[in-house]
Amino acid sequence: MTAPKPTDPIHPPQGRRWIATDFQKTPVDCATKLIGTEFRWNNAGGIVVETEAYAEFGDEACHTFVRNAAREFVRDKQAGTIYAYLNYGIHWLFNVLTKHESSNGFVLIRAIEPIVGIDEMKTRRNKQRLKDLCSGPGKLTQALGIGPEFHGTSIVEERSDFIHGFYGDSNCNVVADTRIGITKAADFKWRFLLEGSPFVSKPLSRTGGAKTGR
Prior knowledge:
Helix content: 10-25%
Structural class: alpha+beta
Largest sheet: 9 strands, antiparallel
CATH topology: 3-methyladenine DNA Glycosylase, Chain A
Number of helices: 4
Radius of gyration: 16 Å
Distance between the termini: 38 Å
Number of strands: 9
CATH class: Alpha Beta
Strand content: 25-35%
CATH architecture: Roll
């Protein structure tokens, strides 16, 4: 595995680093709590402004509903393991496995507000506007240089070759909305957004806006 190589000076991540127990929550709880944290992938990263939750059972939009490999992944892997998959044969999407006695599942990181490594992200994306860099799950992985080689690796185990992980404990306003691009379980309000952020992939819908109680 070849780690990304930094090309510009970066500041250290802010706040405590998330560990395995932080992902030992239900996918909905974890997806909510990740909003406002800092997601760092070596020389680039930003503030998490949008996530989606997918549950192992009772959620027809989750890969575990139709893919045996996804069910085995949940069974065999530890909380905090990266689940990366190719969407429509075009974009790799970055998810993290969550495990809890009441519900296992995945959290999809949909969007971040870029704060570090911006020049490199602009180069990877061939875009100049900040809003165009990471405002969608496929854009995000392209901007950060995340590919299939990281599938099945841990986001909570520290590495000597590069910085990666989630940092900080968020205390921000989070709103809930329906998930994007799915036709099954489409009424679940399991997309979570940092209230008022212009960096999300899609604005809050007319039926969204329910506060999560954070």
